[in-house]
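Notes to self after the call with IL:
- keep both proteins in one doc
- input above output, always
- annotate only the second one for now

Protein 1:
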Amino acid sequence: MKNLLYIFTLLVCIVSFKAQQTEVSSMKYEDIEKRIQKENDKLLVVNFWATTCAPCVKELPHFMEINIKFRDNPKFKMILVSLDRLVDKERVLKFIKNKNLTAEVILLDDIKRMNTWIPRFEKDWDGNIPVTIFYKNGQKVYFNDGEMSKEDLEKTINNNLQ
């Protein structure tokens, strides 16, 4: 029994390790917009965050729990869009590893044009983070400004996943 438990723990560790990113893609706003449209057959959860944002870091464990719960559903995808600076890419990679982030992380390298792309994502977004936007069939179905509880995240996903 002890050996079986050891093997199970080892397998969980291997799967968790494989799920982590070893590289972070940096994209401009237009690339993320295309990516959202490309995932048009899914409920896409897009969370904007930064490693230096305390509420963002606080909510990420809930997002990872929910991502693990739904990741085998072919109609679900979660993307974490980091607003950290491109020069901090290594810090973002270290953060991914230390916090065991299992969702895909993209670094948005478009800070200078924030006033252009923020209203394109959501006209009511004032630029503060965290922000989570839900897309279904390529169309925005829900916008959450601020920290999101695990319960609210799961409820929003369940309401839109049908």
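Protein 2 (the one to annotate):
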Amino acid sequence: MTTNMGSLDRILRLVVGIALVLFALFGSSDIAWKWVGWIGVVPIVTAAIGWCPAYTILGIKTCKSA
């Protein structure tokens, strides 16, 4: 499994993922679809490992070539 995500991509995924998880944890209890925030775990994990399975399938690579 080689890295296919660049630094900016990883930072953006991490920020969005954390925001979604925080929404799930601390969002208003009146919101019935608050569970959607737990989808934020996926971008956090992909940012942490630097590899996105969807990028592999689609042939996308945002990191610099060695």
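Annotation: Residues 7-58 form one domain. The two ends are 15 Å apart (CA to CA).
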